[in-house]
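Page 47, continued from p. 46.
Same chain as before, 419 aa.
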Amino acid sequence: MNFKTEKKSVGESNHNIPYGKQHINESDIEAVTEVLKSDYLTQGPKIAEFEEAFANYVESKYAVAVSNGTAALHLCALALDVTEGDKVITTPITFAASANCVRYCGGEVDFADIDPDTYLLDIEKVRKLLEDSPKGTYKGIIPVDFAGRAVNLEAFIELADEYNLWIIEDACHAPGGYFTDSKAKQQRCGNGNFADLAIFSFHPVKHIAAGEGGMITTNDEKLYNKLFKLRSHGITKNKEEFQNSKSFAAGIQNSKFRNSSDHRRIQNYPAWYMEMQELGYNYRLTDFQCALGLSQLQRADEGLVRRREIAKVYDEAFKGKSFIKNQSGVVEGHAYHLYVIEAEDRLGLYNYLREQNIYAQIHYIPLHLMPYYRQFGWKVGDMPHAETYYKHCISLPMFPTLSDEDQQYVIEKIMGYYS
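Result:
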């Protein structure tokens, strides 16, 4: 098929239209300014406030704020004791961190292909991997709510339980998204009902922007406590967990002080005392970032409504068009971080849109074909659905402040390219 590349007479845009964009309003600025004028820039009260509000939003028991989504994934792998040689399954259509977190801990990554209709990790491909391997080969699965479409984790947890696997839900694209379970109940992404841990990102193009930032949610108190410690150097200030003696903590170890007034005063650990009990990291989030996240969270549902309106317009515009192989469509519970179409002559369309000031994006280059992962033996042909998807996928502008006029401009330019 030959496509025209000359400009069409459907109007011009005098500004750039990105695929994603943050929306910062006066309430956000005031929230950050308030913290900047306070006593705490980091390790203050806004962190716990944001954690509690976010846990309530996704309906999980616990939340742990961290420095970014990649840190969240790394901490999850650490908390689940991923170690050298452990094998974990994930999708090739995702950002690199979904797999890299396993490698950070010395584990091995196996990819399973996507479902070409949903773009999500194909549970049947995962099942085949498990059935074709001796039991105990794999330790866990990392499904990704790609583009904002929720993975049916109820189905995945049944499979995981059969093989004694843990699940980390990568929900970076899907705060507020949900799937409907077998009892017709909506299950929010990250609520912890079917996954051991879930992670979110607050990068500027995500639903909730904090500059950078991430969140881990869980219903497991033991994992929550471990994460809380690991995000801050493996250090605890909880006296119930201390392993060294009170005398050591107070700096009074010589027996000549055993009956002294100094010794009598150390009935408790001194206020300054803390212990590093394992190897952790500085993956903390600041108070002013949490203030911004909190402010953004207040209008998260409003943003979801608008994203779904935009998706509906795209769906109607491209439905039945011969040059569109597939698209995100209208899907219940979809959070629409991205709106993806699979188009003929994707490269030509991408370049043409850029000439029209429309900065669409590609999500993602199949991870198993990145040079780093090719060194482990992955090659072209291993994930045919993911590879076919990559040849055609393009993410269109999708953000709550996208105007009706700009969306129509995007649609008209795409239609014009193929006319």
